[in-house]
Request: fold
Amino acid sequence: MERIAVFPGSFDPITIGHLDIIERAAPLFDKIIVAIGINSAKTYMFDLEQRLKFIEASVAKFDHVTVDQYEGLTVDFCLKNNAQFILRGLRNPADFEFEKAIAHTNRAITNKGIETVFLLTSSGKSYISSSIVRDVMRNGGDYKILVPDVVRI
Ligand code: ADP
Reply:
């Protein structure tokens, strides 16, 4: 059976931290779907089309990595796409606590055995978050070292 993973997130915008997780997960799965979760309660700096474009260009070198969007529960998106795995990155203890609650919840609300797989961030990239990147961008800082080359404002 094909091993399919969904990598869900806001990706507002994709950073080299996200890309690091995708690159390191690439050999582990037959297919990875990078999935932008749409949360109508959130406001974003980059619109959906822009975020999709940035991710598509960043992962273009991988034939088995695709990009999609979804509304609703991540586990429902996984079931729809026959994905058995949810991929997430861990940067620090705060991520761990947050991710632990979500992973347990996802296991509790589906009986289809969807496993969350965590990869630790590479050393040197654990400080990077989209929210800090957005702050740097808004305030005219050098954001280019924090994002893939294709992400430009
Ligand atoms: P969300 O809104 O779901 O937190 P993000 O786009 O911020 O979406 O993050 C998506 C995933 O990428 C999460 O699992 C997050 O922990 C991971 N991630 C974000 N930044 C990094 C980084 N610098 N290194 C490793 N993983 C990261």
Observations:
- Strands lie at 4-9, 31-38, 65-71, 85-90, 115-120.
